[in-house]
Design brief:
Length: 298
């Protein structure tokens, strides 16, 4: 279940180290359920899409409260957990309990789209429905784990996005695609939108002013205080870019004076304690760079 949550919108290579650290800190549902949100976000820090961590935390508490700390092997019960969608429920049921349940990930979607020669965008409602229907029709009576693993591996190793190895494909005789490399079809991508994020760098006696976020994007995480606009009387200390969904954000950090009174969500944090709190990843990167510059100057 942890791996499936982490792999939502994130590649395996990125997840491996995070998964190992997570399982040491939270080895079971009881340990995760007993943790506070700050600890959960800190261990998840750097993996992004923090709603996944909050949902996994909520799901663990629900498993403890409703199922005695043991994940049920029932698909409907798994699907009822916070943050568990159709794919995640099927993947957990399939890989954890060997249920014959359909799942559609990127590899399986590509394999099925080519088998069908599907010209409908797979990220449209109709295209998605056709893939799920086909995946269900192909299911064996039992042994869902091996079946779904085989489809994934077929997509990862043979039916690859570019230059698929059609000559060695074990299901070539059943494939309807005349030009497999052109499939699957997807809807046109949204244009990338440029955003500016201006923040304050305020240091006092070895401490840095931070503020905790309350919005849906980074709720519970700490970051540099936001500025309404770039200050005219301050110098730019650092600028870096980071992606966010279909946005490209430029984070600009300006030197700023300490406010007369801190806001409710603000606090001073020692620069030597930055690694101990849950920070939004782009802000942590900016803070560590600027802190290193200060340290180098003595």
């Amino acid at each position: 279940m942890v791996s499936e949550f982490m792999l939502q919108q994130t590649q395996v290579g990125t997840v491996l180290d995070f998964h190992a650290r997570w399982m040491v800190r939270f080895p079971d549902f009881a340990a995760l359920a007993a943790a506070n949100e700050a600890d959960v976000l800190h261990v998840w820090q750097g993996l992004g899409y923090y709603a996944r961590a909050r949902n996994l935390h909520r799901a663990a508490r629900q498993v403890v409260a409703q199922h005695g700390g043991v994940l049920p092997d029932d698909l409907a019960a798994i699907a009822a957990l916070p943050g568990v969608g159709r794919y995640t429920a099927g993947a957990i049921a399939s890989f954890a309990f060997d249920r014959a349940t359909p799942i559609i990930d990127a590899n399986i979607a590509r394999v099925l789209a080519r088998l069908l020669d599907l010209r409908e965008p797979i990220d449209s409602a109709r295209g998605s429905a056709m893939l799920w229907q086909t995946a269900a029709e192909l299911l064996p009576v039992s042994g869902g784990r091996l079946h779904n693993s085989a489809l994934m591996e077929l997509g990862a190793l043979v039916c690859t996005p570019r230059q698929p190895s059609c000559q060695s494909c074990p299901v070539r005789a059943h494939c309807c695609a005349e030009e497999p490399a052109t499939l699957p079809v997807k809807k046109p991508r949204r244009k990338t939108v440029a955003l500016a994020e201006d923040c304050a760098w305020t240091v006092r006696d070895g401490t840095l002013l931070l503020e905790q976020q309350t919005g849906p994007r980074w709720r519970g995480l700490w970051k540099l205080p936001a500025l309404a606009a770039p200050p005219r009387d301050s110098r730019l200390l650092l600028a870096l870019e980071y992606p966010f969904t279909h946005h490209r954000v430029t984070l600009s950090v300006f030197a700023a004076r300490a406010p007369g009174q801190l806001a409710a969500a603000q606090r001073w944090v020692g620069l030597d304690a930055i690694e101990t709190i849950a920070l939004a990843a782009p802000h942590k990167r900016a803070i560590l760079r600027l802190a290193a510059t200060i340290k180098a100057r003595g």
